[in-house]
Automatic annotation (TrEMBL):
Coiled coil: none annotated. SUPFAM superfamilies: Ribosomal protein L20 (SSF74731). The lineage of its organism: Bacteria, Pseudomonadati, Bacteroidota, Flavobacteriia, Flavobacteriales. CDD domains: Ribosomal_L20. This is Large ribosomal subunit protein bL20.
């Protein structure tokens, strides 16, 4: 029985990877084995960093809230503890936005917590 190969599917697979490698430098964009490795690594990084992005933004929000709270003589941990004690349910994203863009509203929240 003759050997059966599916060249159409093979070429389509390779074209897909080479298209994803468009814009890479040197052989990474046009040599199949190098491009495949580069694209695989890029996909690993993108998967990982979609999760890292969430951590990074949370830490940024915490820094902004801490800076805003310290302007009014309060630490971040005391501020967040006071929010929980007073049943103020605002998440860190909203609090950071208030601290940055609406300092008077943030000050009102800090005064309520004190």
């Amino acid at each position: 029985m003759p050997r059966s190969v599916n060249s159409v599917a093979k070429r389509a697979r390779r074209k897909k990877v080479l298209k994803q490698a468009k814009g890479y430098f040197g052989r990474r964009k046009n040599v199949w084995t190098v491009a495949k490795n580069a694209v695989d690594k890029a996909m690993q990084y993108s998967y990982r960093d979609r999760r890292v992005k969430k951590r990074t933004f949370r830490s940024l929000w915490i820094m902004r809230i801490n800076a805003g709270a310290r302007q009014h003589g309060m630490s971040y941990s005391k501020f967040m503890g006071g929010l929980k004690a007073n049943n103020i349910d605002l998440n860190r994203k909203v609090l950071a936005d208030l601290a940055m863009n609406h300092p008077e509203a943030f000050e009102a929240i800090v005064n309520k917590v004190k």
